[in-house]
């Protein structure tokens, strides 16, 4: 499992972890029943405070994405895909709303936005999308 943490992007690290786990589940990169790295293991891997990872894992349990397996650790719930897909769609929708607001407030026309969107969508499709999670 690959996580990418950017401490300079303004999003708290624990939220970045939550998002990345949910996106990975929605995309099928992590499947139901799969174990996630232990808090200590992930803290060492990412060189971040274990409390940050513990906070993310607790929230993922509250969101019913992860479940505790006695004596083994945390695993992705087998019924988490639908919740994670919904979370992904919400995150993308919120990002799109902010982007459109900024672009239109900055003077871009709807035609300019459509052209930019179509060009970038084509590039992403040709590149095979972003599978860096």
Notes on the structure:
A two-stranded antiparallel sheet has the order 1-2. It has a single domain, classed as Winged helix-like DNA-binding domain superfamily/Winged helix DNA-binding domain (Arc Repressor Mutant, subunit A, Orthogonal Bundle), CATH 1.10.10.10. 59% of the residues lie in helices and 6% in strands. The chain has helices spanning 13-27, 39-46, 50-62, 81-105, 110-127, and strands spanning 66-69, 73-76. α1 (13-27) crosses α4. It is built from 5 helices and 2 strands. It has 133 residues and is mainly alpha-helical. The chain starts with 12 loop residues before the first helix and ends in a 6-residue tail after the last helix. The model has no long low-confidence stretch (mean pLDDT 91).
